[in-house]
Amino acid sequence: MSSEYAKQLGAKLRAIRTQQGLSLHGVEEKSQGRWKAVVVGSYERGDRAVTVQRLAELADFYGVPVQELLPGTTPGGAAEPPPKLVLDLERLAHVPPEKAGPLQRYAATIQSQRGDYNGKVLSIRQDDLRTLAVIYDQSPSVLTEQLISWGVLDADARRAVAHEEA
Prior knowledge:
Blueprint lengths: L2 H17 L4 H7 L6 H9 L6 H11 L22 E4 H4 L4 H18 L6 E4 L1 H10 L4 H11 L6 H9 L1
Antiparallel strand pairs: 1-2
Helix pairs in contact: 1-3, 2-3, 7-8, 8-9
């Protein structure tokens, strides 16, 4: 494998990992040690060759088709992924429960399912925002504005919602 190809492959691996909100250490934890952070990092830097078998296993772990990891292929989605929706849990704790109660319960459920209790931020998906919009009986864009006004979503979330509605 050429050095340039290895670096391109590594860039694809890193892009998929970061799109999923995982650090190298997070990959090791999520895989229960099957994928060591140092090994995945060396694949991403292009310092270490990855076999076809290991690449297929890594694609399976990330839940993506192998071709998404191969250089020279275009991703199935948009060229630039929409910004992430990240809830500021510390600020959410200061929003009155009569306003934020449903969101607090929803976030707690996601944390429980993921085993993610850092207590500072929580990434949510577009589907989560649509579900919350139904719960709050608002459109996703109106709910986004409300969450921004509460300080629990960054203003970049507008772009994510606009991208989804386009």
